[in-house]
């Protein structure tokens, strides 16, 4: 306990435990609330070193267990301590092909950092911050730490969707020597990373650099291809000669609450609002052509309590909204959004209305207000959370000329509807074996939100890794068996 | 990038562009559309596929100047490239052997109705086409439509060609003459609404193709949601064709007005000086020839 155990770290375990976590430098709230500048500014090498020195180099690292893609945390932190930042990057990329992104958007408190031993007595190691530091260092210096690629196998894999699941699977499969092509329906790559998560949490340059890194590793991309319309799974397995397919189309279909007034002008799904702003740059109209309602001096209401709702609210604020009310039907404790994001939003001036639920949107041509009702928490429901119940006679109106609905998304049925024999659930999610991600169609795998429903970036990446492992097994053994055979619930053909 | 291989002016401010897009040509069926983004700063707009050829990999779109993006598209010539074209999107038209079918095209809607009219004819329907335009100069695809159908009735608002009157006048006359089994109407919202009211009393199977505002065109944003049967449907994936008697056309008109002032602002800026857009395209290698600002044509463009 008294001797240094790591040649790169002069401190004893006891000394390490006395160090406090290095806080993430942030752009001040007053400044950032009106610009799309990134909120978190990142560690410099000195901060990164100080933070890395806190790691206890556990013999059985529990942080790795908490990481959905199994990043070798202890190993990469050791490389940081040795000053080998590019080596650290390559070490991370063996398991995670998007470190600059996951370092920013993962809910680390529930994952790697949640398992950190130091966290039992003090604040856990800033693993996400360190991961991000390593990836940003590469970007700053222009050098890239890429893992080695296995000899080519001649096998071809098509990946449907360029979101986190698709990209992670693509990265793993090229490393194993397969030929990989990613098909994307939109004109830009990244899925939710491109159209959903705003610039102030994930700068576009960071996404583009990670995409270039994947290209450098040998991944091919084709945009403007809607699988199910432009080409079908059967075309890809037939004429186009792919040996395996990974379906990672996400859960991109926005849900509405089916309450009166949802079709009023000025009522958006969060997907539409964020797509207009993030993907189409509508905040720079007319320099960019896509329009979006002018938020300047407007009262904006956002419905929902997840990360998407917070992203939409903070985006509207940055576009000049006078007030932004976030309407959430449960209490603060149940909010699914990351704690850090909630804190950032409140600091910036977002007003959160807990235990409140919209019942109608009012207006003539354009929405004018939200009629909402107060809620009280009742008995726990199937999800284990206490069920919100409307309080009778508590209706009131919240003024709003722009409303953004962020109450969740569901599966887009295009691939399923055009792939005969592909089993789906009643709600149109694809049925896949939880261990192997094999579907009811030979050679077709599925993972990420299209199987699980809306989840997090890193869980989708975990599914992508698992799919890569399983696709690799299929390509090398050629054995396909499903146990038990998946129940086919729908086989519509278009 | 998607090269323009042919361009033909059909009428004032209406152009037929043939694009090389082999994946789309291979899968296109009548009633489907593409989403186009002209250049790096461009918006995504939906345009119906008016024709396609699997062999050559060509698709045809017909563009009428209605705002900035369509005005820019109408300046392009063979050899120029569009940055993004995605499709074919939407459900294909339901082609069956209905019997007596009427296909109604109003203005540039004629171009959208044309592939479905041809497919209905090929499926052994007796197809009557009614095409309407404000004036003779705006009439398009007359000979193509005539060749693809059994009879063609031309209506102009001012009587400068064909018969004076609205497409609904011709439709009423047909309904008095014979039993109609199917009507498809494509054109401005007031025209489609009027057709729906004409056929409603006799419960004639009537379809319309809805021109809602779209962004992605794949069902992920719901911007194109339309009110059908008092419920919400997404025109890009559930349509664009719907049962005309179940559509709330007033909601469609209202939603289509959402960005009117911003659209006018874009158009005015482009009208005053189209060079930033052309330079953006040139820098990306989308323009291969010298192109001037076409002052005469620009002046004629108005919303």
From TrEMBL, chain A:
Enzyme class: oxidoreductase
EC number from the UniProt entry: 1.4.1.13
Keywords linked to the UniProt accession: Oxidoreductase
GO molecular function, one term: iron-sulfur cluster binding
Domain Dihydroprymidine dehydrogenase residues, every copy: 32-141
FAD/NAD(P)-binding domain mapped to chain residues: 156-464
Name of the protein: NADPH-dependent glutamate synthase
Native source species: Candidatus Korobacter versatilis
UniProt gene name: gltA
From TrEMBL, chain B:
InterPro entries in UniProt: Cbr1-like_FAD-bd_dom, Cyt_c3_hydrogenase_gsu, Dihydroorotate_DH_Fe-S-bd, FAD-bd_FR_type, FNR_nucleotide-bd, OxRdtase_FAD/NAD-bd, PyrK_electron_transfer, Riboflavin_synthase-like_b-brl
SUPFAM superfamilies to which the protein is assigned, alphabetical: Ferredoxin reductase-like, C-terminal NADP-linked domain, Riboflavin synthase domain-like
Source lineage: Bacteria, Pseudomonadati, Acidobacteriota, Terriglobia, Terriglobales
Residues reported to bind [2Fe-2S] cluster: 221, 224, 236
Swiss-Prot/TrEMBL GO biological process terms: pyrimidine nucleotide biosynthetic process
Domain called FAD-binding FR-type: residue spans: 1-95
Cofactor section: [2Fe-2S] cluster; FAD
Coiled coil: none
Classification via Pfam families: DHODB_Fe-S_bind, FAD_binding_6, NAD_binding_1
Cofactor annotation remark: Binds 1 [2Fe-2S] cluster per subunit.
UniProt cross-references to PROSITE patterns, sorted A to Z: FAD_FR (PS51384)
Binding site for FAD: 62-64
Keywords on record: 2Fe-2S, FAD, Flavoprotein, Iron, Iron-sulfur, Metal-binding
Superkingdom of origin organism: Bacteria
PANTHER family in the record: DIHYDROOROTATE DEHYDROGENASE B (NAD(+)), ELECTRON TRANSFER SUBUNIT, DIHYDROOROTATE DEHYDROGENASE B (NAD(+)), ELECTRON TRANSFER SUBUNIT-RELATED
GO molecular-function term, one example from the UniProt record: 2 iron, 2 sulfur cluster binding
Protein name: Sulfide/dihydroorotate dehydrogenase-like FAD/NAD-binding protein
NCBIfam families in the cross-refs: PRK06222.1 (NF004862)
Keyword Nucleotide-binding recorded: no
């Amino acid at each position: 306990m008294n001797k240094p155990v790591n040649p790169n770290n002069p401190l004893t375990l006891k000394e390490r435990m006395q160090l406090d976590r290095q806080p993430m430098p942030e752009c001040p709230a007053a400044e950032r609330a009106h610009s799309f500048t990134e909120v978190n500014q990142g560690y410099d090498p000195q901060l990164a070193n100080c933070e890395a020195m806190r790691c206890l180099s556990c013999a059985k690292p529990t942080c790795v267990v908490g990481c959905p893609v199994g990043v070798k945390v202890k190993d990469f932190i050791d490389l940081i301590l040795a000053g080998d930042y590019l080596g650290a990057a390559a070490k991370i990329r063996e398991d995670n092909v998007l470190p600059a992104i996951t370092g920013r958007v993962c809910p680390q408190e529930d994952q790697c950092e949640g398992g950190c031993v130091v966290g039992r007595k003090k604040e856990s190691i800033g693993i996400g911050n360190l991961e991000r530091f390593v990836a940003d260092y590469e970007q700053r210096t222009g050098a890239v730490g890429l893992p080695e690629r296995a000899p080519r196998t001649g096998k071809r894999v098509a990946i449907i969707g360029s979101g986190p699941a698709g990209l992670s699977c693509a990265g793993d499969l090229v490393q194993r020597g397969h030929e990989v092509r990613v098909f994307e329906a939109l004109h830009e790559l990244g899925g939710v990373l491109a159209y959903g998560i705003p610039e102030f949490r994930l700068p576009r340059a960071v996404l583009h650099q990670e995409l270039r890194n994947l290209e450098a590793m040998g991944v091919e991309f084709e945009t403007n291809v809607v699988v199910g319309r432009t080409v079908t799974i059967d075309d890809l397995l037939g004429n186009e000669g792919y040996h395996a397919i990974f379906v990672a189309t996400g859960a991109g279909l926005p849900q509405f609450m089916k309450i009166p007034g949802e079709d009023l002008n000025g009522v958006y799904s969060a997907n539409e609002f964020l797509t207009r702003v993030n993907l189409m740059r509508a905040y720079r109209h007319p320099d960019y052509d896509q329009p979006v309602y002018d938020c300047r001096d407007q009262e904006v209401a956002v419905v929902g309590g997840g990360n998407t709702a917070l992203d939409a609210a903070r985006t509207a604020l940055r576009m000049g909204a006078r007030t932004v009310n976030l309407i959430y039907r449960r209490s603060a404790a149940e909010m699914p959004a990351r704690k850090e994001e909630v804190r950032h939003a409140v600091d910036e001036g977002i007003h959160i209305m807990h235990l409140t639920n919209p019942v109608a949107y009012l207006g003539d041509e354009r929405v004018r207000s939200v009629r909402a009702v107060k809620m009280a928490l009742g008995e726990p429901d199937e999800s284990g959370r206490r069920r919100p119940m409307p309080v009778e006679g508590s209706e009131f109106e919240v003024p709003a000329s722009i409303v953004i609905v962020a109450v969740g998304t569901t599966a887009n049925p295009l691939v399923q509807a055009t792939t005969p024999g592909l089993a789906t659930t009643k709600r149109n999610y694809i049925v896949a074996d939880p261990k192997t991600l094999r579907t009811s169609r030979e050679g077709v795998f599925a993972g990420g939100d299209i199987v699980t429903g809306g989840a997090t970036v890193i869980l989708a990446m975990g599914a992508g890794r698992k799919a890569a492992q399983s696709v690799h097994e299929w390509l090398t053994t050629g054995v396909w068996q499903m146990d038990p055979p998946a129940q086919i619930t729908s086989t519509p053909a278009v | 990038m998607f090269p323009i291989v042919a361009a033909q002016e059909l009428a004032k401010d209406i152009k037929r562009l043939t694009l090389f897009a082999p994946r789309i040509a291979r899968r296109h069926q009548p009633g489907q559309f593409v989403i186009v983004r002209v250049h790096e700063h461009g918006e995504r707009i939906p345009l119906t596929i008016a024709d396609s050829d699997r062999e050559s990999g060509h698709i045809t779109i017909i563009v009428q100047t209605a705002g900035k993006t369509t005005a820019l598209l109408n300046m392009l010539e063979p050899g120029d490239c569009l940055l993004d074209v995605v499709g074919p999107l939407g459900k294909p038209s339901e082609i069956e052997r209905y019997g007596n079918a009427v296909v109604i095209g109003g203005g540039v809607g004629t171009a959208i109705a044309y592939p479905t009219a041809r497919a209905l004819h090929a499926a052994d329907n007796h197809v009557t086409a009614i095409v309407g335009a404000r004036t003779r100069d705006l009439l398009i695809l007359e000979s193509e439509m005539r060749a693809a159908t059994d009879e063609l009735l031309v209506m102009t608002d001012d009587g400068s060609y064909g018969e004076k009157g609205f497409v609904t006048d011709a439709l009423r006359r047909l309904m008095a003459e014979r039993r109609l089994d199917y009507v498809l109407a494509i054109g401005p919202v007031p025209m489609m609404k009027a057709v729906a009211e004409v056929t409603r009393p006799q419960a004639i199977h009537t379809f319309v193709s809805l021109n809602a505002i779209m962004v992605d065109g794949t069902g992920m944003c719901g911007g194109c949601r339309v009110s059908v049967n008092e419920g919400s449907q997404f025109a890009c994936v559930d349509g664009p064709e719907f049962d005309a008697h179940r559509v709330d056309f007033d909601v469609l008109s209202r939603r289509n007005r959402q960005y009117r002032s911003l659209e006018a602002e874009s158009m005015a800026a482009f009208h005053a000086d189209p060079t930033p857009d052309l330079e953006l395209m040139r820098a990306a290698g989308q323009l291969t020839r010298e192109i001037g600002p076409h002052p005469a044509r620009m002046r004629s463009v108005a919303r």
